[in-house]
Specification:
Helix content: 40-55%
Number of strands: 6
Number of domains: 3
Shape: elongated
Order of helices and strands: HEHHEHEHHHEHHHHHHEEH
Distance between the termini: 105 Å
Number of helices: 14
Structural class: mainly alpha
Length: 349
């Protein structure tokens, strides 16, 4: 009898072990085992918009064929209450991720940051808005409305719709894909304030220009040269011309007015465009900057070299340096030599 009970106990133990093993495998497969299929890629991204429902999350995953076993994922998601706890955002899905790790990531809102590169490639307000709308969840229409709202721009930033681009500091920003438009511009304003310290504001006031005017002039100077010492001398030329009520006659403003950013040579016909940015046609500074402005260019204007030059022309060796003069006939000679140098290099546009 004792032997029978022992044999029966072993059978029960064996069955329990099989059950535990099966349960363990089921848990491993449904909870901990990778349930991602990326066709050899190491990772991919999904975007869960604000207000998304559980069905939208599933559609984002399934439409890209990311999840192998739909049934096990949905079971895990419901067990962890994902339908009631969806955090919108951009998420990175790795090839080794399990159902549990994906669901936990979305519930906890562990988003992948979006990098925004604001550099010299962004010149116009339209380019800026299109780039931000492409990278973030922010709607393009909302951006257009915000960036043309004279009241908001004036009260918050002391700017207007024409010089709005003065606000944008060229650097790399890391933000959540779901960042609200107000939070986004608070971040932008923070960088702007870090540049425009009390010291720089006082320098702008001392030379007789507003912050937007300094930025606008700096954008022209920066477009003329990237060499610090040259920028300071060029800034001095433009300030001398402004003081004498002369037209700036800055070629970079012609490039901007024509939106022909890939040209290497400005032609006489380019100067016929009727635009407030055509400084050959209109006196004074243009309405706003013609590119995003570095702190170095701003400092070059604030610390411009004081001299009597009112003309400058790029040197024929294409070194980035210029020849400066206060004599118009000498300037014409320098300009002719530079044009000949362009012709010799075959630079027609």
């Amino acid at each position: 009898m004792a032997k029978g009970k022992g044999k029966y106990g072993k059978i029960i133990l064996f069955v329990l072990m099989i059950g535990l093993g099966a349960g363990g495998y089921w848990a491993y497969r449904n909870v901990f085992k990778s349930n991602v299929h990326l066709n050899g890629k190491k990772f991919t991204y999904i975007y869960i918009p604000t207000g998304a429902r559980f069905e939208d999350v599933l559609d984002e995953l399934y439409s890209q064929n990311i999840i192998d076993d739909h049934e096990s994922f949905e079971w895990m998601a419901k067990e962890m209450d994902l339908p009631e706890n969806i955090t919108p955002g951009k998420y990175r899905i790795g090839a080794d991720m399990s159902n549990r790790s994906i669901v936990k990531m979305i519930i906890n809102g562990k988003q992948e940051k979006v990098k925004l590169f604001f550099n010299s490639q962004i010149r116009t307000k339209e380019q800026f808005m299109a780039y931000v709308a492409e990278k973030l969840e922010i709607d393009l229409g909302d951006l257009e409305e915000y960036c043309s709202n004279e009241e908001v721009l004036g009260e918050k930033y002391g700017l207007n719709s024409e010089n709005f681009m003065c606000l944008i500091v060229p650097e790399t920003y890391e933000v959540n894909w779901t960042t609200h438009i107000d939070d986004f511009f608070e971040m932008v304003k923070k960088s702007y304030d870090e540049v425009w310290t009390k010291e720089r504001r006082n320098k702008a006031k001392a030379i007789g220009y507003s912050v937007p005017e300094v930025i606008t002039l700096a954008s022209i100077v920066q477009s003329e040269s990237t060499i610090k010492s040259e920028q300071q001398k060029i800034a001095g030329v433009y300030i001398n011309r402004l003081k004498k009520d002369m037209k700036l006659q800055a070629d970079p403003t012609i490039v901007f007015a024509n939106q022909s950013f890939d040209v290497q040579r400005v032609l006489s016909s380019d100067k016929d465009i009727d635009s407030p940015y055509n400084t050959y046609m209109y006196k004074g500074l243009p309405p706003g900057p013609i590119c995003l402005v570095t702190t170095a260019a701003i400092d070059a204007v604030l610390n411009y070299t004081k001299h009597n030059y009112i003309f400058f022309c790029a040197k024929c060796d294409f070194s980035g340096y210029s020849t400066f003069t206060s004599d118009y006939s000498e300037h014409q000679k320098n300009a002719k030599e530079y044009q000949n140098a362009l012709n010799q290099k075959g630079i027609k546009r």
